[in-house]
């Protein structure tokens, strides 16, 4: 009898795994593959919708003969590698001195607003901060700078992409700090630090040579995702990046949006080229890892204590702190401009304040706000349900296929969005779904689901299995155990994962613009559109809403479990 029950349970688990795998493939993997296919075909001249049915290389010839294309490639590569390297260095240095840095304090004061804020909001705030007429110049004028009018210099949208690098580092540094912090929880890093210190290594050398090499394999995919994003980002490049010629990702969007339908073929070729560029960059980064591993092994083997690393770590730590402070000031700048009525240069603060801009522009931002809210809630909720289904299936199947699932999750994060979003639009056009809210929400799920999985996987798999066994011994079914035992205990991680997915959805620019065909306005698309020359006060309103909405959801996700478990401190869901 017992064997029969076990066999029935095993078959039920297999059926559940098959159903979940089918749903993941149908709703997640197949759209990406279909988008890739529909992007590759036009790149080689095949797009029947515009009468192109002969396979050829004309699109590639047009791509490579475009004036300034080589410059665009150079700027894209320079920005991608520089931003990733600097953000990683800042994140590494932040953890080099744990006694000086309080992770809890960082999480509460910096991580929450910076991680919750979309890239576009940070970029707009940074533009307000570093522009010739920005806040930094106002703070030092005219007393220190001697300026009574803004200087005639190009800072934002500079040809070298330095402002773009700065913006990406400001945004990606908190993310990598969080990733490294999570990886540290998986290792006895304090023991490793103490052991290295007992051998004469300083705190910086102990961290760089002993601790960090052991956690890097756990964060490697996250670093690759940052590199891929930095090479292919669109919205931040539009706001901070060079204009003529732009980065490859921005140029691809311009070709795709051109009135001449023939440019769709060139846009597809550019998207495929960008994908190859990202793959090549990741391979080059991987080769650099091998060189660094060899060098660090030699540094350890030579016997020197490398005290110079302590000074380097301190200097880089200061750089990381500056990045965090800059991100915070960028968000404050958005809020200040949204409440400004009159602010002439070189005054450090507005001469007069008013909330009239909020009420005056309500007709514009209210509809974008509701569309953003609907899309973010629906895509995050659907992704959360899918993630729980996947993790529950892993639990019941003995966690088989975890490594394959990890690679599967990172696929849309490492691939450039342009690689499959444009092709996915063609697929949506063929099914008459393009330009609709459900289609946009579905496209957001392709990016929301991976982040929710990354946020929820470790807490879910770390849940003590004895809770489920105790409930099963009392006669509860797996469904009852999930609903009445696991989910209540996992309330905080589940709500936090939802908040992260919500923030990711709010930040989506290219999927909303392309799949929505410009007919669905969100806070992000409106903010980016206004950033090129709109009223700073109106831009401040949209940027503030864009940053505030995910932050409010994140705060709710943090406070609800604390309220529910106020008298049950032993519950996992009540832990900070």
Would you spell out the secondary-structure blueprint of this structure?
Blueprint: H1 2-43, H2 58-64, H3 69-94, H4 103-116, H5 119-130, H6 135-139, H7 162-184, H8 189-198, H9 203-232, H10 235-240, H11 248-257, H12 263-301, H13 308-338, E1 340-342, E2 352-353, H14 356-360, H15 362-396, H16 402-414, H17 417-430, H18 437-461, H19 466-473, H20 478-489, H21 491-507, H22 510-515, H23 523-530, H24 536-564
Antiparallel strand pairs: 1-2
Helix pairs in contact: 1-12, 1-15, 1-17, 2-12, 3-7, 3-9, 3-13, 4-7, 5-7, 5-13, 5-24, 7-9, 7-13, 8-9, 9-12, 9-13, 11-12, 12-17, 13-24, 15-18, 15-21, 16-18, 18-21, 19-20, 21-24, 23-24
List the defining traits of the structure above.
576 residues; single chain; globular; two-stranded antiparallel sheet
- Radius of gyration, in angstroms, nearest whole number: 25 Å
Instruction: Characterize the largest beta sheet: strand count, sense, and whether it forms a barrel.
Output: 2 strands, antiparallel
The helix content is over 70%
Envelope shape:
globular
**H/E element sequence:** HHHHHHHHHHHHHEEHHHHHHHHHHH
Question: Helices and strands: which structural class?
Answer: mainly alpha
Average pLDDT rating = 84
- Which regions have little confidence, pLDDT < 50, spanning 5+ residues? 100-104
Report the portion of residues in β strands.
under 5%
Number of strands: 2
Q: Please, how many helices?
A: 24
Q: How far is the first residue's CA from the last residue's CA? A: 45 Å
- What's the arrangement of strands in the largest beta sheet? 1-2
């Amino acid at each position: 009898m017992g064997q029969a029950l076990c066999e029935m349970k095993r078959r039920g688990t297999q059926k559940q795994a098959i159903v979940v795998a089918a749903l993941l493939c149908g709703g997640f993997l197949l759209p990406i593959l279909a988008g890739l296919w529909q992007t590759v075909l036009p790149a080689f001249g095949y797009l029947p919708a515009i009468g192109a049915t002969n396979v050829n290389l004309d699109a590639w010839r047009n791509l490579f003969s475009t004036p300034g294309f080589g410059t665009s490639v150079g700027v894209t590569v320079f920005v991608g590698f520089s931003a990733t390297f600097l953000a990683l260095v800042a994140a590494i240095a932040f953890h080099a001195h744990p006694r000086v840095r309080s992770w809890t304090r960082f999480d509460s004061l910096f991580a929450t607003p910076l991680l919750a804020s979309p890239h576009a909001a940070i970029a707009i705030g940074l533009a307000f901060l570093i522009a010739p007429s920005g806040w930094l110049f106002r703070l030092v004028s005219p007393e220190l700078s001697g300026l009574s009018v803004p200087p005639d210099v190009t800072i934002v949208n500079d040809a070298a992409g330095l402002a773009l690098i700065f913006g990406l580092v400001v945004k990606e540094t908190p993310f990598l700090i969080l990733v490294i912090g999570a990886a540290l929880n998986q290792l006895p890093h304090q023991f490793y630090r103490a052991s290295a210190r007992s051998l004469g290594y300083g705190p910086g050398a102990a961290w760089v040579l002993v601790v960090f090499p052991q956690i890097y394999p756990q964060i490697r995919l996250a670093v690759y995702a940052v590199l891929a994003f930095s090479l292919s980002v669109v919205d931040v490049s539009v706001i901070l990046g060079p204009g003529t010629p732009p980065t490859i990702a921005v140029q691809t969007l311009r070709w795709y949006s051109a009135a001449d339908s023939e440019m769709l073929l060139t846009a597809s070729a550019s998207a495929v080229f960008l994908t190859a560029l990202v793959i090549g960059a990741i391979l080059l980064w991987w080769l650099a890892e091998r060189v660094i591993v060899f060098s660090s092994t030699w540094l350890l083997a030579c016997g020197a204590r490398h005290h110079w690393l302590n000074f380097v770590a301190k200097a880089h730590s200061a750089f990381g702190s500056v990045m965090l402070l800059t991100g915070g000031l960028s968000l404050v700048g958005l809020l200040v401009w949204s409440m400004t009525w009159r602010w002439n240069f070189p005054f450090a603060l507005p001469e007069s304040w008013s909330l009239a801009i909020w009420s005056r522009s309500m007709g514009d931002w209210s509809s974008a706000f509701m569309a953003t809210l609907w899309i973010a809630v629906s895509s995050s909720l659907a992704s959360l349900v899918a993630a729980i289904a996947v993790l529950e299936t892993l639990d019941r199947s003995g966690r088989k296929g975890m490594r394959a699932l990890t690679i599967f999750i990172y696929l849309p994060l490492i691939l450039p969005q342009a690689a499959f979003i444009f092709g996915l639009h063609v697929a949506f056009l063929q099914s008459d779904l393009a330009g609709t809210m459900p289609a946009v929400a579905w496209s957001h799920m392709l990016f929301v689901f991976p982040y929710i999985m990354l946020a929820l996987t470790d807490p879910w798999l770390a849940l003590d299995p004895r809770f489920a066994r105790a409930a099963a011994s009392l006669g509860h079914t797996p469904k009852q155990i999930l609903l009445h035992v696991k989910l209540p205990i996992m309330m905080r991680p589940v709500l936090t994962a939802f908040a992260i997915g919500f923030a990711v959805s709010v930040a989506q620019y290219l999927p909303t613009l392309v799949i929505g065909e410009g007919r669905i306005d969100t806070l992000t698309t409106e903010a980016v559109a206004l950033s090129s020359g709109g009223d700073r006060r109106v831009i401040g309103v949209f940027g503030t809403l864009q940053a505030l909405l995910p932050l409010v959801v994140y705060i709710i996700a943090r406070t609800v479990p604390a309220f529910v478990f106020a008298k049950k401190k032993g519950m996992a869901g009540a832990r900070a």
